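Q: Convert this sequence to structure tokens.
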Amino acid sequence: MKKAVVLLSGGLDSATALAMAKQQGYYCHALSFDYGQRHRAELTAASRIAERMGVVAHKTIHIGLDSIGGSALTDKLIDVPDHAQTGIPVTYVPARNTLFLAFALGWAEVLEARDIFIGVNAVDYSGYPDCRSEFIKAFEVLAGLATKAGVEGCKFSVQTPLITLSKADIIKAGTRLGVDYSMTVSCYSADDEGKACGVCDSCRLRRAGFEAAKISDPTVYR
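A:
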């Protein structure tokens, strides 16, 4: 049985990565995080997606990243920008993907799974350092050194099927696989119903992706 742990935020990219893992024949175990983000709409979306796509199991782990702040997504005193920024934006969450992958690695070792899927993207993204291939490769080295399975000769692989795709290509691929993007929430400032602001960086990238793909955008905007 080919098992995988799939990081599922409830957004467009992670839903597509889950669909790709399933298409490759993996028995998918979805992992989401309540990390003190500004809204819970994406967690509600993750639960819907996990149920719709028939994962083997879906866990939500609580991490209090809001207790250290440092990001517009975890500190409500920092506004989410409504315009493009240069450099690494204030929506970067310190060490987020490092922590997420660490939990995924722990669950994978328990499940005797050797593959972890994460929907990071290095083309149409916001400039986050933990979305780059260099980071993923470094984490795979860590996985081999830090786990019982790793030191006993098992190799963990962090699968990044979206990393070189444009947002339009991601949307096209997910549409071919039957992903219902109306269920996903990408907005940094979504309301309780999951309605998007339409002006944050994530909303701009998502909208431009649908336009470039020439596919109708199902996003509900405020």
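The longest strand covers residues 27-34.
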